[in-house]
Amino acid sequence: MTLARALAGRAWRGAAKAALVVALAGSALAADAPPSRVPMPGVQPPAEGKCVEDTAFMRRNHMQLLVHQRDRTVHEGIRTEKHSLANCVSCHASRETGRVTGSKDAFCEGCHRYAAVKLDCFECHADRPAATASAAASPPGGPK
To answer: Distance between CA 83 and CA 69 in Å, rounded?
Structure first.
């Protein structure tokens, strides 16, 4: 019985070493691989230049930031703009449409379509920046 356990232990260690070698080799090959032939979503950079966080971080963590911001705002009454949805929309709205949804190239909708993730933020929230106070005060049709 002890010999069988020793052999089984060696087999597991051997399999673990082989998996590690394959994983390391795969990552090295992936680093040298040509760019993917899969088309990436065509989104525009933020209107004001630089996002509040780097691109890789935002791609991975934007939902957690928005949930955290929501909890702080709704549950604790703390309002900040750095990771707020309204701040994201104001920077990332399309220059042509003024929205982050509405087409496959819109900032939010483009990435969510690409990743096949349901985009439900804008069932309640505005998908375009809020009007400025001066624009809201002007009557429709412009000044008279």
So the answer is: 6
